[in-house]
Design goal:
This protein is of the alpha/beta class. Helix content is 44%, strand content 19%. Helix 1 packs parallel to helix 3 and helix 10 packs antiparallel against helix 12. The two termini are 24 Å apart.
Length: 295
């Protein structure tokens, strides 16, 4: 997933002028430390298009980073050099902890939780970030080595996935959560907030949203039972049929079951019965991050 946002930061708040997104599936068919050539080219072309639009709009600064799957590339310069050449951008690959911290800043700004302590979950394609946020600042962060793409390609091999595949996928997530020493050090908090495409898509599905409306998504509460119900419905049909469900964006139809499994297992492991949805995350955090370029 790629996002482009145009806007200004005024008195610590982001004012959007334009937002676009495009699913390029850089993580699709990733193998042996290499991205598939078609996935790579789709991604580079999308970034170049976004950069052109931003410059045409009059952007004075363009911030761009690579996350999950880019961290696993054996030769990241294949991607970075192509972005420099075609998009004229100096793009950085950031580690999971910094990714979680930036998402935490964006989530806190969007939810109006500047004086609250909460846990932010960001489900990506190859990793999932969890950040403890205190007073709008990331206090702790952990990056977990599973995401919607890696779990789909590693476990949910049939369409629709079999009960055994669903069980194995959920158990793999549960085991990684249980064995993560950093996560075990997180204190208990009352509020879990979810950001990024998996969580917002589940909210849109719950609302049966014919046309995506960020105002309805932001602040939506999803219970554990609601996510379980949505998961059962999603895996009762093949991916092509899921596209007829109101609220499901094309390009997520095969990935959303794995994303829902991640949400359920994280909630179960950390004893949350509810998940608050936010539109704020990585994109907003990058705009608000005080230091650029990143060190």
């Amino acid at each position: 997933m790629l996002f482009r946002s145009l806007g200004t930061v005024e008195m610590g708040a982001l004012k959007r002028a334009s937002v676009e997104r495009k699913i390029t599936r850089l993580a699709g068919k990733f193998a042996d430390g290499r991205a598939h050539p078609e996935s790579l080219q789709r991604t580079v072309e999308a970034v170049a298009e976004f950069a052109r639009k931003a410059r045409a709009y009059g952007a004075v600064e363009i911030r761009a980073v690579c996350t999950g799957v880019a961290r696993r590339l054996d030769d990241p310069f294949t991607l970075l050099d192509a972005l420099a050449d075609q998009a004229r951008l100096d793009v950085q690959i950031i580690d999971g902890r910094l990714e979680a911290a930036i998402s935490a800043l964006g989530g806190a700004s969007e939810m109006g939780l500047s004086d609250r302590t909460f846990l932010l979950m960001d489900v990506g394609g190859f990793s999932t970030e969890l950040a403890l946020v205190e007073n709008a600042q990331p206090a702790r962060a952990v990056s977990l080595d599973f995401g919607a793409v890696s779990l789909t390609e590693g476990y949910l091999l049939d369409d629709p996935p079999t009960p055994a595949q669903l069980q194995d996928c959920g158990q793999a997530v549960a085991d990684l959560l249980k064995n993560n020493d950093d996560l075990a050090q997180f204190p208990a908090v009352e509020t879990l907030v979810g950001t990024a495409g998996t969580v917002t898509t589940l909210a849109a599905l719950d609302l049966k949203m014919e046309r995506y409306d960020p105002d309805q998504i932001n602040g939506r509460i999803l219970s554990a039972a609601t996510i379980e119900r949505l998961l059962e419905k999603l895996v009762s049909m093949p991916a092509a049929e899921r596209l007829y469900l109101p609220g499901l964006e094309k390009g997520r139809e095969d990935l959303i079951p794995a994303g829902a499994i991640i949400c359920r297992r994280v909630m179960e492991h950390l004893h949350f019965e509810r998940l608050a949805v936010t539109e704020g995350g990585m994109l907003e955090g990058m705009a608000l991050w005080p230091q650029w370029p990143l060190d």
